[in-house]
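Below: protein 1.
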Amino acid sequence: MRILVVEDEKALNKVLTKHLKKNGYSVDSCFDGISAKEHLQSDAYDAVILDIIIPGMNGFELLQWMRAGGSDASVLMLTAMDSTEDKVKGLDLGADDYLTKPFALEELMARIRLITRKRTGNRSNIFTIGDLSVDTEKHTAVRAGREIILSAKEFSMLSYMVMNKGRVLSREQFLSHLWDYDYEGASNMVDVYIRHLRKKVDEGHDRKLIHTVRGNGYVMREES
């Protein structure tokens, strides 16, 4: 899941970005509404953590612009404003959730998991396909009762695939959703991680879950 953090308090922005990356998210950050708009115009984000009082273009204005332009990125609004009027305005403009400062990082993570479930239609933090289950809260993956040991990036890729099971994902989609704005690594990085996942997830099992769709990308699905 790729997240854009829009927060003008630099210390808080740094803490949020560091904590999200530590938990396996791909994160870009900026400090004002104009920069946020530029990020959103050039890249695809699954979620935006958006402060209301930011320079250049406030959070309400940015959110209104996003929804008018058809963006379906989930939006979690962060603000020191805790009045009912401000919350109602944000939600009516298309925000998915609202968190008032100060807040605990654990609550922030729980709310991100909540908006992720809303996007996927899943009612819990556990996503399954066949005998594989992926718990996005505990960061664990289990197949046929056996835990799979994964790196942070491997877990992010596996989570992305199981959340989009049955859907063919291109290399470009993997890069745009799982690597941040500054990534300048090898162009075959997606293929490298897919090989890692196949070895850890599918090796030793008769029924494979990770499949190549030649010329298009990869898909996670059950095949008889």
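Below: protein 2.
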Amino acid sequence: MTRPISDLTVLVTGAGRGLGAAIARSFASEGAQVAINYRRSESAAKDLAREIGPKAAAFKADVTDPDQVSGMIAAITDHFATPDVLVHNALADFTFNGQARSHLDQLTWAEIAQQSETAVGGALTCMQALQPHFTAQGFGRVITIGTNLVQNPVVPYHEYIAAKAALMALTRTAAKELGPLGVTVNMVSGGLLRTTDASAATPDEVFDLIAAQTPLGRVTTPQEMADAVLFFASPWARAVTGQNLIVDGGLVYG
């Protein structure tokens, strides 16, 4: 079963700003109805919804809380329809500044657990809330957001990378279990993006260094990441599941 993007209702977690906002704009530009999830960025999320227009609305929920997620899905269903597509982009508080990272001798399990709770736990909670709808219609699309640092940890953000690697594993195991229901589950992994709120603390020389090492000669933008997310939600990806697509201008292979 395939459906054009213009027929879909899409939930983007953590969509009030940064990459999530770019993904929301991209889906809306293709005619989809977009639910903009936020936890704390209420003003930014509502501004984004107003910018996009009547095909978008903002919904508050902490994606790690099953009750809040269930309430959000009910509110989206009342406003639009039950989401056909889940884009799990939500990120626990994190700043991409290599000089300020926790080194291994200072790292705590609590830091890893905090990142994992949102990255992995949030994905699980949202998938569980949407699975009855996916099952009933025999269709669904789940796209998770990963990182090329799993393949190439040039800056060892231990807690963040560990959480995203676990999310990649969940993406693949979920693809296996949900496939018979007509649901595809894939991951899009970017490198450092120029620029999001999370990457704003990154020094310019780091951006320049990455651009110099990248075959395309530049740093990937949030809009370019969003293009790949749309691909996985589109009919063109109907036979693709359990995959991790790295979108970083060719910096990392495999």
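DSSP finds seven helices and seven strands in the chain.
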